[in-house]
Design brief:
binds 1,3,4-trihydroxy-5-OXO-cyclohexanecarboxylic acid, 5-stranded parallel beta sheet, Rossmann fold, alpha/beta, 5 strands
């Protein structure tokens, strides 16, 4: 069975297509679900695409995903900016998380610039409309295929050590001897 990724959508995203189309576009949530199905199939993974207006329901779905899903893509809607409960659930899941927003939250009101979800996310994609979901699926497919064993900083430290070793292994000229 292919790895299954949970794609979660928060409050008001069920209204896509008619909700502020100048910000969120004309595609409906069903259009985005179809796009995700298609993208997932070409990546060899499966998606479980869901939407809820209820924070509690989203928390329950994340908790269930701990044992049954390989990763989570989440557009938490307005809960992005308010929900410590979603952050805690995502952290507790131990799964790779990618955060997605249709709009560029950094070009909008000040209050949208802070995301609790980002603290649990391996990556954030915003401002690219429905394409953001496709990109998130491609990213999570790679994360699932190659779970990260080291953080970027531990990898850097390892590289540094190897370089130092190489340097110290070089023969140091005897004192007083000219090398050139
Ligand atoms: C959103 C951005 C949020 O600030 C907003 O509350 C949403 C949608 C987006 O996809 O751009 O509901 O997450």
């Amino acid at each position: 069975m292919p790895s299954q990724v949970l794609v979660l959508n928060g409050p008001n995203l069920n209204l896509l297509g008619t909700r502020e189309p100048e910000i969120y576009g004309h595609e409906t949530l069903s259009d985005i679900a179809a796009l995700c199905e298609q993208a997932a199939a070409s990546l060899g993974i499966a998606v479980d695409f869901r939407q809820s207006n209820s924070e509690a329901e989203l928390v329950n779905w994340i908790q269930e995903a701990r044992t049954s899903r390989a990763g989570i893509i989440i557009n938490a809607g307005a809960l992005t900016h308010t929900s410590v409960a979603l952050l805690d659930a995502l952290n507790a899941s131990g799964l790779p998380v990618i955060e997605v927003h249709l709009s560029n939250i950094f070009r909008r009101e000040e209050f949208r610039r802070h995301s609790y979800i980002s603290l649990a996310a391996r990556g954030v994609i915003c401002g690219l409309g429905p394409q953001g979901y496709e990109l998130a699926l491609a990213a999570i497919a790679r994360l699932i295929a190659k779970p990260r064993k080291r953080t970027a900083s531990t990898q850097k430290a390892t590289n540094k050590k190897t370089t130092n070793k190489k340097t110290t292994n070089k023969k140091t000229p005897a004192k007083g001897k000219r090398t050139s």
